[in-house]
Specification:
Rossmann fold; 396 residues; 2 domains; single chain
Amino acid sequence: MKIAVIGPTYPFRGGIAHYTTLLVKHLRERHEVRFISYLKQYPKWLFPGNTALDPSSKSDVLQVQCDRVLEPLNPLSWWRTYQIIKKDRPDLLLLQWWTPFWSPMLFLLTRLIQRTASLADMHVLFICHHLIPPDGGVLDWFLARRILWRGDSFIVMSEEDFALLRRALPQARIKGTALPPFDVFNRTPMPSADARAKLNLAPDDEVLLFFGFIRRYKGLRYLLEALPHIRQSRPVKLIVAGEFWEDERPYRELVQQLGVQDAVQFYSNYIPNEEISLYFSAADVVVMPYLEATQSGIAQLAISFEKPMIATSVGGMPEAIHHNSTGLIVPPANSAALAEAVLQFFANDLAEPFAHAIRADKTSSSWQPLIALVEELTAMGRNDMSDPKAKSPRVL
């Protein structure tokens, strides 16, 4: 099968770039794949991080052959992408949805394709990482509906997004799948004592890890507010490793106000791939106190390092983390529940039984179910959906 994939890859950073890179690599094991990627991504005024480029060292895992064509604010690059697709005439065009920023490009591209007779049999498949961005609103929902109805089929990452998309597009052909493992990282753990020594921790410290970039919806505030209660019973330490995508002063001020400055270590930079093992190897448990989530690459990282997790019951988190088996699930925005879960984890010595369950689960984890799902949906052919304004219920 001939496939065209559009998405980011190295040297752009982040989970979507890693996902697309690995998706293309696994698809190429079975199919002929044209990968069209970006010359530029977000303009600086829309990107809160220090840099859009990945500071990780180059590796064979990160490298993948692609045509770097697209620029987000250059419609000529969208036209060139269309011309590539028109010339290749692939059986499948695989698009990804994760932010409405790409709506103009996706609108023009899909509109041109649908008006091209030679592409009439081409299947358009959207992989939806999340339908509405965290902290998104009515405009994001409107744009998602206006773009996604042009797809023939859809793959979503959580039951919540499945239900949302079914409400928006009742006629749609939708399948769900788990987030596959991200194999772009050095997942070889360091000895815990060595990792802790590098981070100025004692070998017998009880260590929590909050990993990944920090925004309001990640719920770090609730974890910090849980620390005083936890430390009344256990002298835990918290590592916060990730770049702030908002003002970090309120978090540091909160730590001071709570009197837990001796218990919290901030590493507020983007963590390159080769340093990820350091933080996960030092931790006893990974805490994800999210207020919103569809699925989480951090959970996949924790699983790859066989680290138990404490997370909130939002989005696809309960699907990735099995309560009382591979981790603990608590209500969101609830510092008291977080504190009790942390105390339960250490008091009941859950680290080893949870790690054992993770080892048993991850042996069946791979990219093959996703690749098989792509093949299955493509084989079903085109899905003739009408404009959602006529067919879909009012959901705004």
